[in-house]
Specification:
- With 220 residues, this protein is α/β, with parallel strands linked by helices.
- 30% of the residues lie in helices and 17% in strands.
- A hairpin with a 4-residue loop joins strand 6 (168-171) and strand 7 (176-179).
- The protein is globular, with a radius of gyration of 18 Å.
């Protein structure tokens, strides 16, 4: 496992974060921590080329996400340190579409543990890669935010960001729909870019999903 830390990143808005710590294993991103640069450990670990490449990809995608330029993460994550139950919870959480929320009850039923709200909450609290696995999209049944490892203000900020960002981009010439941030989406010429708030909207007017980012309609 390699720990790599950034100092303040010019690509990232200063009011979003001042320092990111990523722990990278051969399998993927193993841990993500956001903290103030003043509190950060200044020692940098020696990184392998693979770890450095993965770190650069992660930092770029996170910056794009916080700028509203990405609605999907295309990064490997390593959940080997999680329990089987935690992995089940996080795998289900990762399916929640950008800009949408689900309840703790929904998640408990999804993993076959109805009534296990407390255990679900603990599993989400132990999420090693928040933001990338979007545990901020889990809210209470009454619609209130509920807890979050980085605090309620962070959760509110992330949800507000996603509500303000259109997650899908279609190409009018090919009729292909991509998540914002997909490599193919970046190649669409400005005059051919059509923005969609939902997969269903695009489907109804004849768009088909990109084979790379594979957007899908989820009625859940």
């Amino acid at each position: 496992m390699t720990t790599i830390q950034t100092e303040k990143t010019p690509a990232a808005p200063e009011d979003i974060w001042r320092s990111i710590v990523l722990e990278v294993s051969p399998q993927g991103i193993q841990r993500l921590v956001l903290q103030d640069a003043a509190q950060a450990d200044t020692a940098l670990a020696s990184a392998s080329p693979h770890a450095s490449d993965l770190w650069n990809q992660a930092l770029t995608q996170l910056a794009e996400y916080f700028h509203g330029e990405r609605s999907i993460f295309q990064l490997p994550v390593d959940l080997h340190d999680c329990t089987p139950f935690e992995r089940d919870v996080l795998t289900a959480t990762a399916t929640i579409p950008y800009g949408e929320v689900r309840s703790y009850k929904w998640l408990a039923e999804r993993v076959g543990r109805p009534g296990a709200a407390r255990a679900i909450g603990n599993a989400l609290h132990n999420n090693p890669v928040p933001v990338i696995i979007p545990c901020h999209r889990i809210v209470k049944s009454d619609g209130s935010p509920g807890g979050y490892a980085f605090g309620a203000a962070w959760k509110t900020r992330l949800l507000a960001l996603e509500q303000a960002t259109v997650p899908f981009v279609g190409c009018s010439s090919t009729r292909i729909l991509c998540y914002r941030g997909c490599l193919h989406e970046r190649r669409v010429q400005e005059g051919n870019r059509i923005h969609f708030a939902s997969f269903r909207d695009a489907l109804e007017v004849g768009y088909r999903p990109c084979k790379v980012c594979q957007p899908a309609y989820q009625d859940a």
